[in-house]
Amino acid sequence: MLLRPTDHSRGVRLGLLMALLVGVLAALNVFAGNPGNMGICGACFLRDMAGSLGFMAKGPRYFRPEILGLLLGAFAITVLRGRYAARSGSHSIVRFFFGVWMGIGALVFLGCPFRMLQRLAGGDLLALSGLLGFLGGVQIGMWFERRGYSVGKTAVVHRALGLLPLLLVGGLAVLWYRRAGLLGPGPNEAGDPPHAPWFTALGIATIAGGLLSWTGFCAVSGARQLLRGPRWMLLGVGCLMLGYGVTLLIGGRSSFGVATPPGAHADHVASVLAMVLVGLSGVLAGGCPVRQIVMAGEGNGDAFITVVGIALGGVLAHNLGWAATPSTPTAAGGVSSAGYAAVITGIVASLLYASLAARTPKTVN
Known about the structure:
Layout: H1 9-32, H2 42-52, H3 65-80, E1 87-88, H4 92-109, H5 113-121, H6 127-146, E2 155-156, H7 159-177, H8 198-215, H9 219-224, H10 232-250, H11 268-285, H12 289-297, H13 301-319, H14 337-359
Antiparallel strand pairs: 1-2
């Protein structure tokens, strides 16, 4: 990790440059064909993949290469640096639980924290309400941490375990590429949902995955540092947004305002509550959705369990009518009463679990 307080100034500058490049890469993925302000989005892409596997009765269906790319990039960079180590053994069911809620909250807001940053950098002012909720949720999670909550620490395990996420997703990619039963557009086909050419997106995400792994970038960590130092990760967030925003501006794709930006809705209350849930769950699970995917590529089996939970959350959100609908020039979009109920239930459940876990003694005699 470069974006940490113990690094020398040269290492920090390198980390900030890498974060800038990730923002540029995300923008290039939009230019290549991805939906607006969705160059890279952990929760949305996991939902699309779940749809391609037939788990969703309705909603987008496409085997997103970005997920495979993030895994590949993180794996490759840790191997090249001699730092690959499979890890597991830290409250997997808890991580799965909070992964589900992260997925639901992200689909009500219409984006994970990583996409929230892209929406803001692309000029989507509607995302400000999501940012407010996300910061609040992270602060609530930190409050529980100060009172003893911990998701635990992983331990080094056999290397074969760490390879399972990559082998599983890679195997599914082969099946999809051969058109062996998976749903949605094929590797050389246009269609819904909008997407960049498959190998273009795979290459962009692989580079981004390596950079994200090297820096240890996490939107939750950036939010943690807003109100208390050190602020290296927060600076990384700013660099990522700068790279993304400037690239879009140069390419004429920026659109500042609140008039139906791509993939957004104007229900500010729902956005705040949804991102409170995402921020709180992210702290309690140990990282934002994109960070969980990257950690899975690094060999963290528990992070992959969280990733599976996020995908399930997306499936539930669409199958049960909780996911928000984006605004368009002809439709207001927004969140259903069932979506509100799901988010509030998630917040209450997360608070209840964190309260109980924070009071649990660390040792039992």
